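Box 3.1. Reading complex inputs
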Amino acid sequence: MTTNSTDSSSSSPKSWSELARKASAEPAPDDLDLRGSLRAHLESTPRERPAPVNVPTLWDDLVALSQLRWMKISLAGGVAVSCGLLAAWFQTLQEVQEFVYFTAPFLI
Amino acid sequence: MPESGPDSDVDLSLVQKAQAGDLDAFDSLVAKYQPTMTGILYRFAPDRADLEDMVQDTFVRAWKGLPRWTPNQPFVHWLKRIGVNVGLEFCRKRKNSPLGRLVDPEDHPLENLATDPVAEESVRNAVETAQFILAQVPPEDRSLLTLLYLAEMPLAEIADHFGWSRANAKIKAFRARNRLKSILKKHDYKFD
């Protein structure tokens, strides 16, 4: 460390603001020589390639939505209700058909 | 907001060359900004070996990430953001670092600082003493308080670095200060 240790050790500050002020004013070491080792490291480091910019389409949004848990549950529920409604509709249609079939001769 | 001026023009030219893979241009940027980054990172890690690792890591990340840099932000701001992230990671990993072992409050109670000559000897300067204290708050608070008090960075700038809103940064700073206050009080330091 380049700092004068006697200063800080002989009068240990009991005030946070004083300590913080001293710490912020303390000069950082200016003799760091990293350029050589950094250069050697970088020469052997592969670069990142910029990721291609993908504009999300409606299909991507739908796929992303379908992967959400609540959406899966909702879809399953929706499909079950639709099937139920369809079955009820067919049953009703069949009943109407039977009603018409049996009552039609009497109506004419 | 992009900066304009001769300095940023030089940066832009060097960065564009470096983006194309020119290591000499990047070396010029390293030479120019190493003191700035050392000044910031020293507040996180006064230990020389840690500091060297952190500064080097910052520039390695910058080199790797250069293709993603766009001129809509000044290069130095982008570089500082990388440095702050390196500092934040250091705070998170402090338990495994040499300084982390030094500042582990369970091993070295703070009240021993004023009386124990060995503890005092191990804490050589104000930054180390401050980090000794800050090591007792959670890592995110530690990095926030380091930037706020030791690097004297405005709260608005800290908010930008962490991607927080101004209001959120104020709340986090308020909570971090309160945690710091309780630690300082416990060890007879006054928060003024």
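In summary: Chain A touches chain B at residues 1, 3, 5, 8-9, 12-17, 19-20, 22-24, 26, 28-30, 32, 34-35, 37-39, 41-43, 45, 47-50 (CB under 8 Å).
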